[in-house]
Amino acid sequence: MTFRTLQGVPFTTILDTFNEAFSDYVVPFKLSLEQLEGKIKSENLNPEISVGAFEDGKLVGYILHGQDIINKQLYAYNGGTGVIPEMRGQKLTMQMYKFIIPVLIAKGFDKIILEVITINKPAIKIYEATGFKISRTLNCYKGTVHTGNTTSDINIKTLERYDREKLQSFWDWQPSWSNSFMAIEQLKESNIALGAYKQDALTGYIIYNPNTKRIQQLAVGKEYRRHRIASQLLNVIAVDYTAEMAMINVDDKDIATNAFLENMGLQKPVVQYEMEMSLR
Asked: I need a labelling partner for 56 at 20 to 30 A (CA). Which of 127, 160, 225, 280 fits?
């Protein structure tokens, strides 16, 4: 068994191993090459800081890492860990981290973060043994949104630019990696961004990915809450695009947003832990 970065490894090879590894996952899924390329782009995944396990030249395990600066610290994000079924039980995930952590430290990374489904106890045990700790709980929603009455004095129109300081002032918590500014900037050409305006004042906004049918960000200014502004934003997406949508990785501590999504008709089929490891 050998370990090396994924630099130079074809996306098609990574795709085959990715899908084989996830074929019996707790939530089985399969990606197309286009979807994998979209994931690599949106999550800023970098083969130079990702690692593969190779048996007789075949890729049998991998960790895909992205990178971004968050609160002035350089983070690596685990965008996917997988080992094909017949190679499990050999602690390959721990061995891959043993290989890649010195590489990340040498490149100046401060932390690694990842997400894991809460019922995936074997994976959680491995990550904890590797040095990760649970940092927060994230709820994932999907379903069909209930449409309803709108607020007459609110005007919904295209959000022409992302004023980070303004949009962040609406937040109560930091979006997860796949919903971060880095991710939405990467998908800006395909995403739908709408602002809710009262006269000329931006009161709330939504950023929606029509390809995945996912809400990436949804927030309302604190002084404008409980005026059905978020409902109106969802209503526009439901009417103009589709009422079937999802919103993943909502911070469990945000009671209001979780209750709102459930009241709008979405269910919570998956709950994840965000886990973090400090490298310094």
From this structure: 127
Task: Give the angle subtended at the CA of 273 by the CAs of 270 and 277, to the nearest 5°.
Answer: 155
Nearest to 215 by CA among 199, 228, 231: 231
SS3 content of the chain, % helix, strand, coil (to 5): 30, 35, 30
Whether the Cβ atoms of residue 51 and residue 29 lie closer than 8 Å to each other: no
Fold classification of 141-273 (topology level): Aminopeptidase (3.40.630)
CA 18 – CA 29 distance, rounded (Å): 10
Nearest to 22, CA basis, from 120, 114, 158: 120
Domains in the chain: boundaries: 2-131, 141-273
Superfamily of domain 2-131: Gcn5-related N-acetyltransferase (GNAT) (3.40.630.30)
Among the listed residues 232, 226, 168, the one whose alpha carbon sits nearest the alpha carbon of residue 195: 232
pLDDT tens digit string along 158-192? 998 899 999 999 999 999 999 999 999 988 888 99
Q: What angle do the packed helices 92-106 and 121-130 form, to 10 degrees?
A: 40
> pLDDT > 90: what percent of the chain?
88
Instruction: Say what percent of the chain tops pLDDT 70.
Output: 99
* Per-residue pLDDT band at 151 (split at 50, 70, 90): low
CA–CA distance, 48 with 82 (Å, rounded to integer) = 17
What the block records as the tokens of 31 is 């990606």
Could you tell me the pLDDT band of residue 202, with boundaries at 50, 70 and 90?
very high
Average the pLDDT over 26-40 and give the result.
86
CA-derived radius of gyration, the chain: 20
